């Protein structure tokens, strides 16, 4: 099955895990785009959505969803988002689309985080995918040097600014054996807005599109 078909199958499977949530948190990326499209079939049962990026907001509005500011909601029952890599503990690397900061904030507010992904995203050790780090522009070189001290090879994502007006360093060559520790270490570097490791708040459930169908995984 092509990866797009796997993404679509995982996205559609997420519909049956919303459990009548009145507010749904929406991630960013091509898998989430399939989810947004599928969500239209139950639009009537959702009061509003909270979006993690301008791109998702635009798609949601086009489909007629009410997009609510995060500050206007107290709690989000369920958040659905993709991942660039995910391990057996449902810890992830995210940020391939550059929306990692807003994604991490919405994940923190949400009661349940459902990750939807194609089979290629499932890994034993995080770090094969270049780790995105959102940085304040004036700290770019300093943070890059700090990444080198950690053994990484940082590269500026050329011609890209996040929805928050910041830059992204994509860091290769990191074998992330202790994701929570690495998440804290990198987040503590002055100038880092967010690192794309989601380990301190992992997903609660993974819906993985595979050639054999959609597998449902909870943390090992
Ligand atoms: O973290 C993300 C965006 O910041 C995405 O969830 C991640 O990049 C996966 O994207 P896709 O569904 O297109 O493979």
From TrEMBL:
Role this protein plays: Catalyzes the reversible conversion of ribose-5-phosphate to ribulose 5-phosphate.
Coiled coil: none
Family designation: Belongs to the ribose 5-phosphate isomerase family.
Gene Ontology biological-process entries: D-ribose metabolic process; pentose-phosphate shunt, non-oxidative branch
GO molecular function: ribose-5-phosphate isomerase activity
Entry's EC annotation: 5.3.1.6
Pathway noted in the entry: Carbohydrate degradation; pentose phosphate pathway; D-ribose 5-phosphate from D-ribulose 5-phosphate (non-oxidative stage): step 1/1
Keywords, comma-separated and alphabetical: Isomerase
Stored Gene3D superfamilies: 3.30.70.260, 3.40.50.1360
Residue spans crossing the bilayer: none
Subunit structure: Homodimer.
PANTHER family in the cross-refs: RIBOSE-5-PHOSPHATE ISOMERASE (PTHR11934:SF0)
Catalytic EC class: isomerase
Binding site for substrate: 28-31, 81-84, 94-97, 121
Catalytic activity: aldehydo-D-ribose 5-phosphate = D-ribulose 5-phosphate
GO cellular component: cytosol
SUPFAM superfamilies to which the protein is assigned, alphabetical: D-ribose-5-phosphate isomerase (RpiA), lid domain (SSF75445), NagB/RpiA/CoA transferase-like (SSF100950)
Record protein name field: Ribose-5-phosphate isomerase A
Active site residues according to the UniProt entry: 103
């Amino acid at each position: 099955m092509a990866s797009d078909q796997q993404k679509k199958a995982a996205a559609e499977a997420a519909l049956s895990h919303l459990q009548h949530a009145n507010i749904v948190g929406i991630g960013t990326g091509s898998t989430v785009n399939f989810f947004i499209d599928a969500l239209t079939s139950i639009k009537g049962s959702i009061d509003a959505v909270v979006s993690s990026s301008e791109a998702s907001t635009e798609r949601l509005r086009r489909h007629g969803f009410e997009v609510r500011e995060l500050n206007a909601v107290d709690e989000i029952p369920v958040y659905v988002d993709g991942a660039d890599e995910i391990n057996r503990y449902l810890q992830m690397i995210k940020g391939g689309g550059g929306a990692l900061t807003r994604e991490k904030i919405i994940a923190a507010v949400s009661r349940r985080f459902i990750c939807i992904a194609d089979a290629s995203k499932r890994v034993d050790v995080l770090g094969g995918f270049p780790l995105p780090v959102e940085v304040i522009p004036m700290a770019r070189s300093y943070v890059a040097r700090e990444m080198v001290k950690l053994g990484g090879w940082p590269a500026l994502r050329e011609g890209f600014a996040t929805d928050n007006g910041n830059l992204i360093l994509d860091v290769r060559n990191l074998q992330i054996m202790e994701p929570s520790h690495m998440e804290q270490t990198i987040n503590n570097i002055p100038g880092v807005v967010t690192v794309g490791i989601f380990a301190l708040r992992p997903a609660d459930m993974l819906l993985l599109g595979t050639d054999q169908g959609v597998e449902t995984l909870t943390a090992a």
